[in-house]
């Protein structure tokens, strides 16, 4: 630091001395006709030296980063000190006592001053000093140039970093726009169910090796419902992940990637476009670039067209040599005709030639017709798959504490019986293990159960309902209906809206109490919920709030069973369709909760799933937005739904708060955010305007609520 301060002082001193020397030279040159030419050279040197040191002075004052450079230049024998000595000596050579008599003419003063200079005796020394000064100046200029280059490079790097961050932020925006349906949560869930060692029979099959080696383009893995196709696909996807990583390491010049997608019954959608968007998103991320066509689609906004997505996919494929694409559960796309046609395009059009396609589905005739001509089929009905089921059953019992005290021979009998009768259905086998853990731990009881196993999944689900205790059956029915009601109302949103177990239990208890008050004295938790519903449901740790768990229907086949004629027409069944009595009862309950909201009710997004009041308010508004026809046609629900929009009621402000907080659900903000100018219209006018705005926000534009209001 001392060297830097000394350097700063020397820089200032050089500027001052150079200024003096320049003044002397000008004075002599202006006053003497035949002044020595060396004085002009000295003047020019000072005029070039002064800006250099003024620049150094500026850097010293404004940039702390140059302290290292100043410290180096200001060494005892350094160029700054050298310049200082040279300029100081030049100043001494030129200095003279100017005449003190002010009456003398300027010329007489100059001549009097030049007389004692004896310049010829000093000329040689002056030239020597100028040479030294030139060398020092060159060194300083070089240092300044280097520092300036560094500064420019630093600024460029900073700008590149800023632009990089900006570009990354823009890419993230495009990625989020592309991701209509995120398959990763389904993949992680399936991976958690995978039993180590199972599914490797397919990896050893010659057909798999041929597909990996590009000898054929498409593999179709098929089997009956519940055969464990999704878990197998998750294992194959993980294998593709390892394969592409290892291939890239062994052949750095090759660009090999993988992408995957899971169709899912709860999506309740045609999966063709979501599949394309997800694959395009994954490949853009892996290549770390946004192609022109993708960016144009993003800038246009809205939903990309079915014709634009394949074009964008063909463009991003140019960044790769091979892309392995896996898609699971094609049969769960609803409808699926467009998706099957898309497979044909991916496997026949030249622009998609880099894609190797892996497909899994049930054995449905339309899928078989579409896949037969373009794929190599692999059936999961084989001895290897049966051995996988045996391994799976054994693992389920080993992990379950309720089987700890069972004898080894009993465990082996269970394993052998279930794996033999499973006929390739992993789902069926898992349900039997779930049921066995609840029977009395007695050999004769267990063996009778094994002799009377249900033959199909539907029979299995029938038995689950019949074995629910009579006094708990109503609660179980309500639980199942709440789950289905939730999935139907929230299925359109691209991000999964999870139903916490705590909210489900509270909602089910409250709705059951409306039918039977005795349930109000019962206490339920997540474990009791799981025990009562058995393998009809699954609970999982919420990744956003790890301290809580959420609930879903356990499998696609459960929903199929619940909506089947077999279930709805049986004494056990209740209608699950829109407008069913139980759904209407839930809606009545939600309306009652909303009307109890007060002026002071305030909500925050973090409360969404911790407050049943907020959840039921959102649920009610979603039903009104998606199914206003059945609500309006209902004799009691219609008038109460109209009352929601009465701004004179205490619940209106609370609802407006919920709507503004949870704008994701598109409740028609205009209906709730009107600020009336004075004089404020009467209540009926304000209510009519709110209903009209809400109706206008609906896609069908039927204005049923408006008609209901006017009719009444």
From TrEMBL:
InterPro entries: NPHP3-like_N (IPR056884), P-loop_NTPase (IPR027417), PigL_N (IPR031348). Keywords: Repeat. Residues 4-169 form the Azaphilone pigments biosynthesis cluster protein L N-terminal domain. Residues 197-362 form the Nephrocystin 3-like N-terminal domain. This is Uncharacterized protein. It comes from Lophiostoma macrostomum CBS 122681.
